[in-house]
Amino acid sequence: MNFLAVSGSLRSESSNTALLRAIQALAPPGLHVTLYAGLAELPPFDPGLEPEEAPDSVQAFRDQVRAAGGIIICTPEYAHGMPGILKNALEWTVATGEFVDKPVAALSSSPAASGGEKALAWLTQTLAVMSADIVPAISQPIPFGRSRVKSNGEIVDPALAVTLEAILAGLARAVDVHTQNGGKS
After folding, report:
1. How far is CA 154 from CA 1, 58, 63, 76, in A?
2. pLDDT in tens, 141-155
3. Where are the domains of the chain?
């Protein structure tokens, strides 16, 4: 089983990327989590281009989303929303439908107690419009992210490890259901 993990932050020391690194390290045998590293290479979304005219970086992103059994997106909160760079990436997939019925764990993290709830709401709304299969039981804000995980993905808070393991297990169950139902969850 393969998951694609997408951080909404370009910052190298991002707590959102660190959370995804922690998830990657917690993946049990038989489950592979790939951290998407091409967010900065995606050009601004151009709705005037036909899908096959999209730049190579966009095609590569679409291919990775399509190939993944499930997606984990973790976004920071900027100005009460997700960063434009993440919204841009998602917009590149609207017309081509890579997220349609795709099981997704939507997460947000911030250093605040809210965990980036406003960004999570925006991310969830965007994914819902794209017909992604958002798994509510595992889609959640992660408060105080920066103090709970080091930038290399090392978990400092044992309770966070339990939460992240539950996210992995919940997404794996959603992917199994999706597969058993012939691609529909």
Report:
1. 23, 31, 29, 19
2. 999 988 999 989 999
3. 2-180
